[in-house]
Amino acid sequence: MVLTAGLATKLLRSTIADYNFWPQSESDSPLSIKRAKQPFDEPAILSRDASMRRAALKAMNPLLTTYKPPTNRRIEYQNLDQLFQPLIKNALAELATVSQALAGEMPAPEAYFSILMPIEAVEYLTELYQTFSQLQNTKVVLVHDDDGDNTSPDAYTTLMIAGESAEYEIILAQAVLIQT
After folding, report:
1. Residue-wise DSSP of 84-150
2. 120-152, pLDDT tens digit by residue?
3. Kindly report the CA angle at 102 between 99 and 106, in degrees rounded to 5?
4. Exposure string (b/e) for 148-157, b if CB count within 10 Å is 16 or more?
């Protein structure tokens, strides 16, 4: 069964409501959930990427008046399994480590609270994976600055997780990640 656009966005927004931290970013990079019309092709991806980078830079520097995206952006495609399976495995390993530490002699009551974040991470990633798995034509898009000589590396990578609803509307979870 393929989800409708309304149900997919409702499920995704519910998932990010109480925990919204993407594990591959060095700073707070919350996902935002969007709906878009077709086509979701390379010009649309690069346009969305430029808008997201501009907004991220404007948030860091409100005096920014102009922005020109990097000239050599590279689009990388992955499937849902390539993205989510390693992330979920890492989150489960962290949960196991914390759980193991709590299984020893009577830890202080506050120590039990350390298990909350790993549980939330596993739940967050698994729910995103499950919801996008119920859409069609899913893909993961990463847009990197590929300046070649790395003289002025751009720390921003745009992440877009996309799928089509039953009505063929594009459902997106997107964020600008900081990766140095």
Report:
1. HHHHHHHHHHHHHHHHHHHTSS---GGGGGGGHHHHHHHHHHHHHHHHHHTSEEEEEEEEEE--SS-
2. 999 999 999 999 999 999 999 999 987 665 555
3. 160
4. eeeeeebebb
Predicted TM-score (pTM) of this structure: 0.90
d(CA 125, CA 84): 7
Q: Which pairs from 65-70 meet CB under 8 Å and 24+ separation?
A: 70/145, 70/146, 70/147, 70/154
Report how far residue 2's alpha carbon sits from residue 164's, in angstroms, rounded to the nearest whole number: 9
Place of tokens 């299984």: 103
**Selection from 25, 31, 26, 1 nearest residue 128 by Cα:** 31
Q: What are phi and psi of 36, to 5 degrees?
A: -140, 155
